[in-house]
Amino acid sequence: MMIAVSGANGFTGRFVCAELQRRQQVFVAVLRPGTDVNWMKTHHIPVRFADLNDVQQLTSALSGCSVLLNVASIGFGSAPFIVQSCRLAGLKRVVFVSTTAIFTQLNAGSKAVRQAAESVINSSDLDFTILRPTMIYGTPGDRNMIRLVRWLDRLPVLPVFGNGRSLQQPVHVTDVAWAVVEAAMTTAAIGCSFNLSGSVAVTYNEVVQLTALALGKKVYRIHLPCGIIVACLQMLEHLHLELPIKSEQIRRLNENKAFSHEDAFLAFGYDPISFDQGILNEVKLFRSGPEVWE
Predict the structure, then answer these.
(1) Which fold has domain 138-170+199-256+273-294?
(2) 186-223, pLDDT tens digit by residue?
(3) E strands, the chain, where?
(4) What does residue 101 show for φ and ψ, rounded to 5 degrees?
(5) Do domains 3-133 and 138-170+199-256+273-294 have the same CATH topology?
(6) What's the whole-model pTM score?
(7) Domains of the chain: which residue ranges?
C-alpha cells in the first residue's frame, strides 16, 4: 500500500511523515513545485511535485497510491481539485485535515472556504475522513504556543486582552500526526468527521500559568478591556495600518474553544496528552536549540 502525503513539508506534515516512518509504512511526499526538499532528503523521503489546484499535476503525483493524507490546508480552495484528482487517479481513501476554527462565531474570511471544502468532501464518493484539530503546538516551530513561550522567557509581565477565562484545548502535534495515520487505517473512520483536541480544556489564564511553570518563571498578568482594545484596533485597521495584532485575533482568543474528542477515542483510540505535559516538552525543545527540534 502506497500512501501519499500532501502538505508533507509543513509543521504538521513533517510529523505525519515521522509517524509513517515509525510504522514503517511506504509513502511519498507530495510537494508544491519549487519547494525546498532538503528536509525530505535528510529523512530519506521520496518526493513528487504537484500544485494542489492543478488536477493534471496532482493526478500524476497520486499515480500508484491507494491512500492520500491531505495535511495541506483546505482553506485555500483546493478541495474540489483534490477530490477530482483522487477520482482520476483511482484513489478512494483520503484523510483531510481541517480545523475546529470552522465553528467560530466570528466572520473569519477562511471560515466559508473551509466550510465549502468540507461540503465538497462530504458530498464526494471518496472513502474520506475529516479531522479537525484545535490549535496545534508542540515544538518551537509551531507558530502558536512558541510566541507565548518566548514572551514569558523574556518578560515577567503579560498583557491579557479580556478576563482570560475563555476555554482553550490546544492539541500536541504528535497526537495530530498519530490520529491522521491511525484514522487512515481504521475502517470505522470512513465517512466521518472528528474533532481532535487536547486532553482537557483549560482557561487561557491556566495556559499562561502552566507555560510559566514549565519555564520556571513567575508571570504577572495585566488584564486589559477586550471591547475597547478591539474597537481601537478596528479603527486602525480601517486606515490600512500594519499592526502586530488583529482585532479578530483578540476576539478569537476570547471565544471558548473547547471541543470533545470522544468520538475519535471511540472510533480509533485517540487519547491525547495533557497540556501541562505537552508544553513542558515544548519548553525542553526550546531550551535545547533548533539543532534538536528542526
Answers:
(1) UDP-galactose 4-epimerase; domain 1 (3.90.25)
(2) 999 999 999 999 999 999 999 999 999 999 999 999 99
(3) 3-6, 27-31, 47-49, 67-70, 93-97, 127-133, 136-137, 157-161, 167-168, 171-172, 192-196, 202-203, 220-224
(4) -65, -15
(5) no
(6) 0.94
(7) 3-133, 138-170+199-256+273-294
